[in-house]
Design brief:
By secondary structure, the protein is mainly α. It has a domain of 186 residues: Orthogonal Bundle (MetI-like fold), CATH 1.10.3720.10. 70% of the residues lie in helices and 0% in strands. It starts with a helix and ends with a helix.
């Protein structure tokens, strides 16, 4: 009987994999998406790259002249410097404050209330938030009634009112505060969700080993949520590199607050300089693209590890 069973197993042919050929139906379903990508992404991208090597009205080829202008013109260097300042401070503040708040309110009674209050600014558009903060930063000459909330507050302590948006000494920092106010809640919610995913056994084991709160935070919590911190950080970097709305509403890029996206808008729509405007768009794409690739790869690794 066993011999017959063995012969049956040996005689049974292995399953043949079905080879799928070309499907016109599949092509029919993906064709609209492919056409839209070609029309609204690939073609504009190629055309913008071509424009970046031409003069202002796209009538002559100028080579790398537009890119040289970006890295040598004083006003463009200010925009690049400001973008770097935004990148460092904006990322550190949003991710850092989001992490601190997420840890402090974790498993407290009013956790949901605090999270809701900090997340509310995310429901406001950049333009709406900028209009709100324009009233906060409003400046009137000394001796006049201060309408701006911040100047009215510091006036209670005898401090002179400050032109928060027009003084180059601190106007960029004032604008970064607006972005931090809006996006800290987002960082906090994402990081808080990662903290909830830390097993209770790990926390209890650390407490039994005598780990203090700081040690537990730095040696256990931060390493275990590092993938989430990476995703939040890269998301903030991408947002900051493209920052435009806040600067446009508050200062229009004046008073030393210009950034790359604002410079691109001015060159293309204010000065009708298609060459420099396209070069700035290409530069912004080149800077953002590697960060997006890193973010996608990290997310894929996390999915494979699950």
């Amino acid at each position: 009987m066993a011999q017959v069973a063995r012969e049956h197993i040996v005689a049974t042919p292995p399953p043949v994999k079905e080879e799928r050929g070309f499907s016109w139906l599949a092509l029919f379903w993906i064709a609209p998406a492919v056409i839209l990508i070609l029309l609204f992404f690939i073609y504009p991208l190629i055309q913008t790259i071509i424009y970046s090597f031409e003069n202002a009205d796209s009538t002559a080829f100028v080579g790398l002249k537009n890119y040289k202008f970006i890295f040598t013109d004083p006003s463009m260097l200010v925009a690049l410097r400001n973008n770097l300042l935004w990148l460092v401070l904006g990322t550190m503040l949003t991710v850092g404050l989001g992490l601190i708040v997420a840890v402090l309110v974790d498993r407290v009674k009013i956790e949901s209330i605090i999270k809701s209050a900090l997340f509310i600014p995310m429901a406001i558009s950049f333009v709406g938030a900028s209009v709100i903060w324009k009233f906060v930063y409003d400046y009137e000459p000394p001796g006049s009634p201060q309408i701006g909330l911040l100047n009215a507050f510091i006036g209670l302590f005898g401090i002179r009112p400050q032109a928060w948006l027009t003084n180059p000494a601190f106007n960029n920092f004032a604008l970064i505060v607006i972005y931090t106010w809006m996006w800290t809640g987002f960082s906090m919610v994402i990081i808080s969700a990662a903290l909830k995913g830390i097993p209770d056994d790990v926390i209890e084991a650390a407490k039994m080993d005598g780990a203090g709160r700081f040690t537990m935070f730095w040696r256990i919590m931060v390493p275990m949520i590092s993938p989430t911190l990476g995703v939040v950080t890269t998301t903030m970097v991408i947002n900051i590199l493209k920052i435009f709305d806040v600067i446009y509403v508050e200062t229009g890029g004046n008073y030393g607050t210009n950034v790359i996206a604002m410079a691109f808008y001015n060159q293309l729509f204010q000065f009708n300089n298609y060459g420099t405007g396209s070069a700035l768009a290409v530069l912004l794409t080149v800077v953002v693209l590697p960060v997006m690739i890193i973010n996608v790869r990290r997310m894929r690794r996390e999915e494979q590890g699950r």
